[in-house]
Design brief:
The protein is of the alpha+beta class. It contains 10 helices and 17 strands.
Length: 298
């Protein structure tokens, strides 16, 4: 069973949270909320702290020792000092994971309800969570926008003679899983922030190392993406190009060059974040999408 460890004060909890990447740049008001509800626990070796049959109602920061956690039939992972157990699964809205103390451990317990409230009330936590989640996916993905082995054949799609209207853009977005739960007002706000982009064959959309302040949704055409090492993959109609680099605030890791005529929609990062700050439901759905992608990685 869990037993109380020597109790840390709110200030100690705050300093511990401040040392974690997810909370380093968060203002004290948000961290104080978490620190006030955090509890230090000592876990005996072999004790289960998260049950896969139950919803995740708390998250743990490992202070001392190790905790082994697993999701379904996947290979177990081990969390050590300052690692967080349950956070990604909570963000992904997973039903539960199993976490068992590999050794006797001291953990900081954070109620899931408090974490969710902090997300809704303090947008910098949303921004930081998205940035870290996207960065982890970029590292796992490598220097191309999609794994070459998993990339479907790039198809240019159908070329429209006139740009899509706002209503057509909204209807198209509502078919995507990430936007199905979002309010109509949020989707309209996003659609209003799009700008039309056209490129000719051979045009360079961006180079390796360029700033990633925006991304593109390819409406028509094929884009060839090439890493610094010379690996390349083609992407076509419907592909969202450059979004992870942009959300992660990382420079471009590949060149994007038009292989055909390109018709695309450009979304600016700051405009996108502005919509998310106003529409928390959409922000929470986007975090869940990133977290599920991270969990589904081998």
């Amino acid at each position: 069973m869990l037993v109380d460890a020597p109790i840390l004060g709110v200030r100690d909890n705050l300093l511990l949270l401040r040392s974690l990447p997810a909370f380093m740049s968060i203002e004290d008001a948000a961290l104080n909320l978490l620190a006030e509800h955090a509890r230090v626990r000592r876990v005996r070796e072999g004790e289960r702290i998260l049950d896969p049959a139950s919803p995740i109602d708390r998250v743990y920061v490992v202070i001392e020792g190790e905790v082994r956690w697993t999701r379904g039939a996947r290979t177990p992972k081990v969390a050590g000092r300052h690692d967080v157990v349950g956070w990604i699964a909570l963000m992904a809205r997973e039903e539960g994971i199993e976490a068992i103390a590999k050794t006797e451990a001291v953990v900081l317990e954070l109620p899931a309800e408090t974490l969710e409230r902090a997300l809704e009330d303090h947008f910098p936590i949303v921004r930081n969570t998205m940035r870290l989640g996207a960065a982890s996916l970029v590292r796992a993905r490598g220097n191309l926008p999609i794994d070459k082995a998993a990339a479907p054949p790039a198809q240019p799609g159908l070329r429209r003679e006139t740009p899509r209207s706002l209503v057509e853009r909204v209807m198209g977005m509502r078919t995507a899983p990430i936007f199905k739960r979002a309010s109509v007002e949020a989707v309209i706000a996003l659609a209003r922030n799009w700008t039309a982009v056209r490129a000719e064959p051979g045009d360079i959309l961006w180079r390796v190392g360029d700033d990633s302040s925006h991304w593109l949704i390819i409406d028509y055409g094929v884009v060839t993406t090439t890493s610094r090492d010379g690996d390349s993959v083609d992407v076509g109609s419907g592909f969202v190009l450059g979004i992870l680099d942009s959300i992660a605030r990382l420079p471009r890791s590949y060149e994007a060059r038009a292989a055909t005529e390109i018709v695309a929609s450009r979304i600016e990062l700051e405009g996108f974040l502005g919509v998310l700050e106003t529409h928390f439901d959409l922000a929470r759905d986007f975090i869940a999408y990133l977290a599920r992608e991270a969990l589904d990685r081998p």
